[in-house]
Fold:
Amino acid sequence: MKTAVTLCQVGEAQAGPFVFHEPLPEAFAMAAALGFDAVELFLPSADFISTEDVRELAEMNRLSIAAVGTGAGMLVHGLSVTDPSAEKRAEAIDFVEAMIDFGGRLGAPAILGSMQGKWGVGLTKELALQHLATALRGFGKAAARHQVPFIYEPLNRYESNLIKRLAEAVGFIEHHQLTNVVLLADLFHMNLEEADLAAAIRAAGRHLGHVHYADSNRSAMGLGHTAPSPILAALREISYQGYLSAEIFPLPDPRTAAALTLQSINAFRS
Ligand code: LER
Ligand code: MN
Structure:
């Protein structure tokens, strides 16, 4: 298991669950100084910075790129892959595919979280899930061209109404025979939706590709009421090789939040 911390460059997400909001050169240096293996990037769009510049920052700081988020597509541009409008769906797909290519050139997978949208006004659940399956099929194929997977993230009930639990997501992937699509276990969302986090992780098994490592209140692990040991034991049991990425509020301050994350993971390792 490898460690990552979120770096956010989206002004609209200042209050979001991201650790470092400094300009990327400073943010990369802070992540490296703390001892993370990688950073997870939350950018306004795929043309915010060149892949060459990111590669240079990564090499200089000996950091990998764990993943790239696409949430700005929803937050900044109002795009979702289940929009009732075919034109808007196509725009959303273009946005995510550009992010897949951006991340892919850096060896990093892209994530579909907020941009999955929700069913409701002007859209049945059945049709929304069909749009989601179509989008994920294409994203899996696009990511495969870069030899990386595509990551799908189930969200809690207050953020989406499509797929809330890991087991539902596994069923969806299998039913639609989606290839090269892995699942993100965001422990914050899971705390709201799963009966037993460790059991859900064990059952998801090989489908799991990424973890957002957050406590129950979306602060750093240790600041809420989640027990990390059974979760880390479950991840070890399924031979999880991916990242534990701190997608958390920068509380009480970014450095402490990041350090607490590492402390929690390293305590289990030793
Ligand atoms: C994105 O990873 C996520 O977890 C969503 O809740 C957006 O904040
Ligand atoms: Mn998340």
About this structure: The pocket of manganese (II) ion (ligand 2) is lined by residues 113, 153, 186, 212, 247 (CB under 6 Å). The mean pLDDT is 98. Residues 221 and 228 are 7 Å apart (CA to CA).
